[in-house]
Each structure stands twice: as C-alpha cells, then as structure tokens.
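Margin note from the TA: students keep mixing up input and output lines. Inputs are the sequences; the output is the structure of the whole complex. Example:
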Amino acid sequence: MPGMLRTYWVVLAVAVIVAVLPYLVPTTFYLRIAALVFIFSIAVLGLNLLMGFAGQVSLGHAGFFGIGAYAVAVGPAHFGVPSWLALLLGLILAGVIAYIIGRPILKLRGHYLAVATLGMGILIAMVFTNEARFTGGPDGMAVKRLVLFGWTARGSVAWYWISGVTLVLAVLLAVNLIDSPTGRALRAIHDSEVASRVLGVDVARYKLIAFVLSAVYAALAGAYLALFDALVTPATAGFLRSIEFVTMAVIGGLGSILGSIVGAALLTVLPQLLTVFHDYEHIALGFIMIVFMIFLRAGIVPSLAQLLRRTPQ
Amino acid sequence: MSVLSVENLGIDFGGVRAVDGVGFAVEAGEIFAIIGPNGAGKTTLFNLISGLYPPARGKVLLNGEDVTRLAPHLLAARGLSRTFQNLQIFFRMSAIENVMVGRHLRERRNVLAHLLRLPSVVAQNRDSRAKAKDLLNLVGLGAMAERPAGELPYGALKRLEIARALATEPTILLLDEPAAGCNAVETAEVDAVIQKIAAQGVTVVLVEHDMRLVMKISSRIHVLDQGRTLAEGTAAQIRANPAVIAAYLGAHAGAEAGDAGR
C-alpha cells in the first residue's frame, strides 16, 4: 500500500537503522553513543511536536527531562518503589506538572513564552539542587539499575536495544498523531491561530496537549539516561540541556520527525569526533552549527528534502 | 427567529468608536451584504460577531441564544464560521488538509486514540478527507487538493478559505471580501460558489466592495459609515438612497461608468 508507506516510511527507516546498526559498528563503544542518540532523539522528538508542529517554544524542557531522571533515582532509593514503576510515576508527574504550569504560561506568545519556560526549567533544576535530602544536592545521586522480570538492564548493548525500540515506538506515535485531527489542529495553530479558532479548534487546549506530550517524551528520555548512566546530577535538568534540546530540534529541522533524530545524532556525535581539535573543540562545534544554519536554514532534513525535490531526476 | 441578530453592537479603539450602535437581523437562507467605505468598521464588525474581539457594548444572538463574548471555537460549534479579508491560510499544510481542519468539530477528539491510530481514527481520517475533497470540488479546487497551500494562487486561496469554513457545516457563514483582489473570471467563480452555498441552505453574511457582485446576489444590504449604520434595504433601495450615494456609492457609480466607457 503506497499510502501506508508514505505515512510510515520514517518509522520503517528508524526501525531498520536500529536493527542493522549493531552489525555495522566495530565495538560496543559505538552502541553507547547510539543509545545516547536514541535517548536524546526521544526528548527532541517530543519538543519538536511542541515547537515544530504546534509552533510553541520551550526553553525549559530539561526540567521535565530531570523529573524523569530524578523519579527513577529518588523513587527506588528513598521510597522502595521498583524502577519501572518509578519511571511510570515520573512520566505521570511530568505530565501533571506540564499541565499545571502550561495552562497559565501557554497564554504567552513568542519571546514571552520563551522566557517563561526558561524560568520554569531553572525553577525545576533548583528544586533538584536544593532538596539535597532526597536528591543528593549538587553532587547528584546514584541510580539503581532497572530490573525487569529478574533481568537487570545494564551496559551499552542492553540500553541500545531498550532505547532503540522505544524510539521506534515514539516515532510511530508521533507519526500517528501528526496525521490525525489533533495533529492537524496543532499544525493549524502554528500557521494561523485566528483561523484555527473560527474553525472550532480550542487553541489553548491543543497547545496544552502538545506541551504535556512533549514533557512526557522528555521525562521518558531523562529516566532512560539516568538508568543508563546509573547516575543523575542537577546538570541533567540544567539550562544548558534545555538549550541543547532546542538546538537539536532546530538544526535537524523543526517539524521534521527524522530531523529530530538527525539533530540529536549530530550534536551527540560531533563533540566526540571534534575531540581531535582538543582545546578548539567548542570553537569547531560552534562554527559547524553556524555553517549548517546558514546553508540549511530550514534545518538539515527539510532543507535537504527541498534540494532533492528541486533537482531534476 | 433570526439566524443572527446584532443589537446595538459597539467597540472602541483608543477612544475611536470603531463600531457604534450597529444592529441588524439576518434571516435563514439570506445573502446579507455589509458594505461601506474603507474604515467603516466592516471587518471589525465581523471580528465582534465571530468572537475575536469582545464588544464593549451590545449583544450578538445566534438562533436566539446570546453568544456575546463567547470564544470563537464555541461559536463555530454553534454553527458560525467565517473567512478572512487578509488570508489566514495554513500555508504549511496541503489544500485538502486545510479543509480537513475545518472538519475538526465533526471529528472525535480523543488524543490517545489519535496517538495509537485506532481503526476508528483511520476510518475518520478517510471520511474527513472525502468530505474535504467534495468541498474542494465545490469551489473548483479539486485538482489542487494535494498541493501545499502555500503554492496556490491568490484567487484559489480565497476559495480555499470558503471550502475550509464550509467544512465546519455552518448554518451561517461570514465572508470577508471573498472577491477582493480577484479578476473578473475569479469573481464569477466566487459568485457561483456563494450562490451554491446559499442554495444548500447556508445563510451568508458578506462584506464586499465589488458592488456589481453585491447588488446581484444580496437579498438585503446593510450600509456602514464611520462605524455606524447608514442604511439598510434591498439592492434597489440602497442604490436609490441619497445618503448612501453621498457616502459611498457615488464614487463606485462613477468608477462603473468609467469601466463601461472603456
């Protein structure tokens, strides 16, 4: 069915990459990098639903990432909750907090929304730093390994598969959503709020839906990273992490699902490659990002897709 | 009972009475035109009726229900939709998806079902797409259904907005200058579309500067000048009204005579 393929090719492509990559890399070190890429991709994918599709910015999504991470750290350590349940509770908590915060701040637009979400992220990170009794304060805390049916998830290979399969599912849900009444409402709001409203779209409700969904995606990614690293620190939820997510979404391509993954991959892999530049690593990274934004200004994936369409076959 | 009735409606912008004491009643099946010089308050009046601005004074009744200050999406749910003078197209979506957004109120809105794409969602997508295709055919854009809306010519976008508003299955449709910027051929198409809509039983309220179109299709005409009602009546009554000729039609009558002389 060509119609099905046109909708689901991204899911298929990601599934193939996840399935084949372990056979192409020489050592498990690369699987560790890949697992990190998949984990960040999940967060960026969620953020892209909010920014790329609904057109609402957030500079505070590391806060939700942190909520997921600290849920799997604090839950088992202080309350004896099994890790899998702590993860679920973390997702719910992130969703509820996003719902409560989102209602008032999503009334703001543009720069004002950016600053409000920035404040939100900083506030959440501050809680992790200050509630040292539970979180270990600035030093962070160790995270117990995830145990599922007697099997302990540890190491790069295990987390490669867990995060890879989850990413495929996250992509599947996102693709489903985008081509649904909810997805159309989100994309409509991005282009014209007034037109959306007079067509019956409850704009406030759909912005909130996108915000909550993206928060849950971020929390899931945060929980995975904490379980994978077996460690969590307030930097997990820090301001720089929020900026990193936004940068990944923008550089990969706002409104592009594949772009979320490409953006996450680029900003995860590049710093590893650029270590050859030693002291100039960050300069090189910054320079590459500027060049990408100048020449592929719609983001890597949408810009390349546009170029391919223009090129005569 | 009138489909839409407006009573003593008013709003001020920085001390200027943009709309002041305007009242009229539109009956089912009418094509009701609102005309007047630029700045007379026509679009502001539409924004008040469709809930985009909260009125400072007066009331809006929809099928007898007081809907003053109701949010636009709630008005849409009660059967009122509109188009925009300055286009409000979803440029990043295809033409048919633009119209499918108009199906929003008729679709089941369960986010969880959408995420999981339950079979009901697939069926509903198919149904919305089919209905949107019918509407695109109605306005003569069937061949452009899958094109990105951003690539369509201006005249087509005007009709796309009409199809999109119709997708909500309104009982009353507000059209804000549907023929503005259209050439003679496109205006004729807009004319035909409006008549088709009215024939389907949708009440039409129209803001338009093309006097030939207005005089031809309107059952009644309401004339605004500087935010206030100047006159109301049939095309013949309005054409003969000295106040209307002085404030507005005079210039147009001259322009039309000029056209005829060429």
